[in-house]
Amino acid sequence: MGGFENLRTVTMPVGAAIAQAIFVVVDAAGEIVAAGNGAQAIGVTLEGVTAQEFTDGKAVVSIAMITAGGKSRVKAAAAAITRGDNVASDAAGNMVTAATGDAVLGIALEASAAATQELITTLLGKNGLLTP
């Protein structure tokens, strides 16, 4: 199974180093940061920016926008994720099984075998949100 399908990508500024394959939001400065617990993310980072790269002047990152029907790889948190779970963001932007009150960002198409494993998820647009 491929990792990326039907993605709309954009390039956005970052204000610091950021990991690859995490859910992200736009902060008050207009920069991409990791999404918080249960946050309504706008996308998933397709690349990361290390602290050294940021210091050297790399200040943008490509993200896959969360749109209905897109598929992307997202880093799983330490907790187990089962295929078919509604997924949300943890405090670091990693994918977790959605809890009551979380913004559901996608549906896991694979189960996690290890923490920080990148899993394929179907991304849901804001109008396609589900309630866990």
Give keywords.
five-stranded antiparallel β-sheet; disordered C terminus; mainly beta; Virus Head Decoration Protein, Chain: A; 132 residues; 32% strand; single chain
Q: Helicity level, as a percent range?
A: under 10%
Strand content: 25-35%
CATH class: Mainly Beta
Topology order in helix (H) and strand (E) letters: EEEEHEEEEEE
Sum this structure up briefly:
With 132 residues, this protein is mainly beta. The protein has one helix and ten strands.
How does this model look, in words?
By secondary structure, the protein is mainly beta. The protein has one domain (about 10-130): Virus Head Decoration Protein, Chain: A (Beta Barrel). It has one helix and ten strands. The protein has one helix spanning about 50-55; strands at about 10-15, 25, 30-35, 45, 60-65, 70-75, 85-90, 95, 105-110, 120-125. It has a five-stranded antiparallel sheet, with no helix packed on it. The longest helix is centred in the middle third of the chain and has 5 residues, at about 50-55. The chain is globular. Mean pLDDT is about 85; it is low at about 125-130.
Topology (SSEs and partners):
Blueprint: E1 9-13, E2 23-26, E3 32-34, E4 43-45, H1 51-55, E5 60-65, E6 71-75, E7 86-89, E8 95-97, E9 106-108, E10 118-123
Antiparallel strand pairs: 1-5, 2-3, 2-4, 4-5, 6-10, 7-8, 7-9, 9-10
